[in-house]
TrEMBL record:
<keyword id="KW-0547">Nucleotide-binding</keyword>
<feature type="domain" description="Aminoacyl-tRNA synthetase class I anticodon-binding">
    <location>
        <begin position="383"/>
        <end position="449"/>
    </location>
</feature>
<dbReference type="InterPro" id="IPR014729">
    <property type="entry name" value="Rossmann-like_a/b/a_fold"/>
</dbReference>
<dbReference type="GO" id="GO:0004818">
    <property type="term" value="F:glutamate-tRNA ligase activity"/>
</dbReference>
<dbReference type="InterPro" id="IPR020058">
    <property type="entry name" value="Glu/Gln-tRNA-synth_Ib_cat-dom"/>
</dbReference>
<keyword id="KW-0963">Cytoplasm</keyword>
<dbReference type="InterPro" id="IPR004527">
    <property type="entry name" value="Glu-tRNA-ligase_bac/mito"/>
</dbReference>
<comment type="subunit">
    <text>Monomer.</text>
</comment>
<comment type="function">
    <text>Catalyzes the attachment of glutamate to tRNA(Glu) in a two-step reaction: glutamate is first activated by ATP to form Glu-AMP and then transferred to the acceptor end of tRNA(Glu).</text>
</comment>
<dbReference type="InterPro" id="IPR000924">
    <property type="entry name" value="Glu/Gln-tRNA-synth"/>
</dbReference>
<dbReference type="InterPro" id="IPR008925">
    <property type="entry name" value="aa_tRNA-synth_I_cd-bd_sf"/>
</dbReference>
<keyword id="KW-0648">Protein biosynthesis</keyword>
<feature type="short sequence motif" description="'KMSKS' region">
    <location>
        <begin position="245"/>
        <end position="249"/>
    </location>
</feature>
<keyword id="KW-0067">ATP-binding</keyword>
<feature type="binding site">
    <location>
        <position position="248"/>
    </location>
    <ligand>
        <name>ATP</name>
    </ligand>
</feature>
<dbReference type="Pfam" id="PF00749">
    <property type="entry name" value="tRNA-synt_1c"/>
</dbReference>
<dbReference type="InterPro" id="IPR045462">
    <property type="entry name" value="aa-tRNA-synth_I_cd-bd"/>
</dbReference>
């Protein structure tokens, strides 16, 4: 397939919301396409009529766009049912798809007997021995067949060169002939997926390593349908910090909830991709930069553990580097009108852009009342007396604190901490040199007056 342009696909089922574990294969496919000038196909595998919902389909489209992935082709698997039926019929005609009538209970009983005799619990192909009369009798009893794909046991070892894992083999003799069509005539995942991969010209399939065994079956299915198999790559899975698998029921880690919580998409994308690789975990500014940081050869075989605390650190690093132009609209939407001066002052203290609202409320006040330490009240009164005249600018803080130092003899923490607490109500935060012009002289004076108390002229030097 090397003669064709690289075409990858991400094929989620719209049966739930995407989580950060789903983002990993989506992003690896998108990054591979970026690195190789290829195309990204988003295919909604919506053939499960009972569980697929339009709200989930819409959420998937929204989440993929939020991650910054450009979709070159959007498809819904349900729109290609005719091609799936035609492929099934061709496989029946060639003898590779055959009817079987065992119930789930009968199959379970057989597996247990095989295991009791030390045999592998794989399907014994008893259905291949049925005559036309046998099948007619079973159907007269009300049984309906499910349809199995007959694996080619003459090619016992299926081999491929995996983009991540290198040379891989699957022993077909260790597998049961997979069911491709249920008793009610609906398809399981495998056949529609392969048929669509052929139809859409998919050249590379990058997915979780829980699909390695499936690949042996799918390569045979591609060949049975007269097509060359794509190139496969299997990346390690993300797990929770405790080692449990992620699922669509892990609501707190859904991409929608992460976006709603104020995380930057590139923080989520960077962590989803770089975990479990040999690349350093650091935020990328965009997907092109991320594609340059990591490739499939850097992916480990061990599961990658996702800790939400790591996301906070990455997000903070991204936010600290964001220019005002990148956040101006979001700040305006929060009612923040401090402009670039405010953003540049507070961004180094934010984990998320939304955290800026808390600092804006501190700038605009009023602060909740809180009394100073007894020894600081005279100092704050002197600070009010020495407050410079307007306008307040970049040098105001330095001029003011130098005058206070000369007047009171205080320096270091004893000088700066009472001022910080009086002006912000906190003992940490952005540089007061930047905050002071934003707070303004009038509000600064009011805050100092609210903290200080009348004192004698000799008190400032005490």
């Amino acid at each position: 397939m090397s003669d064709h342009p690289v075409t990858v696909r991400f094929a989620p089922s719209p049966t739930g919301y995407l989580h950060i574990g789903n983002a990993r294969p989506a992003l690896f496919n998108a990054l591979y396409a970026l690195r190789h000038g290829g195309r990204f196909v988003l295919r909604l595998d919506d053939t499960d009529r009972e569980r697929s919902e339009e709200r989930f389909a819409e959420a998937i489209l929204r989440d993929v766009a939020w991650l910054g992935i450009t979709v070159d082709r959007l498809e819904r698997q349900s729109g290609h049912a005719g091609a799936h039926r035609a492929a099934a019929e061709a496989l029946k005609q060639s003898g590779r798809l055959y009817p079987a009538y065992e119930t789930a209970e009968e199959l379970d009983y057989r597996r247990k007997r095989q295991m009791a005799h030390g045999l592998p619990p794989i399907y014994d192909r008893a259905a291949l021995k049925l005559t036309e009369a046998d099948r007619a009798r079973l159907e007269a009893e009300g049984r309906r067949p499910h349809w199995r794909f007959r694996l080619d046991e003459t090619a016992r070892l299926v081999r491929w060169t995996d983009l991540v894992r290198g040379e891989e083999t699957v022993d077909i003799a260790s597998l049961s002939d997979p069911v491709l069509i249920r008793e009610d005539g609906t398809f399981l995942y495998t056949l529609p997926s392969v048929v669509d991969d052929i139809a859409f010209g998919i050249t590379h399939i990058i997915r979780g390593d829980d699909h390695v065994t499936n690949t042996g079956v799918q390569i045979q299915l591609f060949e049975a349908l007269g097509a060359a198999a794509p190139v496969f790559g299997h990346v390690n899975l993300l797990t929770t910090a405790s080692g449990e698998g992620l699922s669509k029921r892990t609501g707190a880690l859904s991409l929608g909830s992460l976006a709603e919580a104020g995380y930057e998409p590139m923080a989520v994308a960077s962590l989803a991709v770089l975990l479990g690789t040999s690349a350093p975990i650091e935020p990328a500014r965009d997907l092109a930069a991320l594609a340059a940081m990591v490739d499939l050869s850097m992916v480990s075989r061990s599961p990658a553990r996702f800790d939400p605390a790591d996301l906070d650190g990455l997000n903070a690093r991204l936010v600290h580097a964001l220019p005002y132009e990148a956040v101006a609209e979001r700040l305006a939407a929060m009612g923040i009108s401090g402009g670039e001066a405010f953003w540049n002052t507070v961004r180094g203290n934010l984990v998320r852009v939304a955290d800026a609202a808390g600092w804006w409320s501190i700038v605009t006040g009023p602060l909740p009342p809180s009394g100073p330490a007894a020894e600081d009240a005279p100092f704050l009164a002197e600070a009010e007396r020495l407050l410079p005249s307007e306008p307040f600018g970049a040098e105001t803080w330095k001029l003011w604190t130098e005058a206070l130092k000369a007047s009171t003899g205080r320096k270091g923490r004893a000088l700066y901490m009472p001022l910080r607490r009086a002006l912000t109500g906190l003992d940490h935060g952005p540089e007061l040199a930047g905050l002071l012009p934003l707070i303004g002289r009038s509000s600064t004076k009011d805050r100092l007056a609210g903290q200080a108390r009348p004192t004698s002229p000799s008190a400032p030097g005490s």
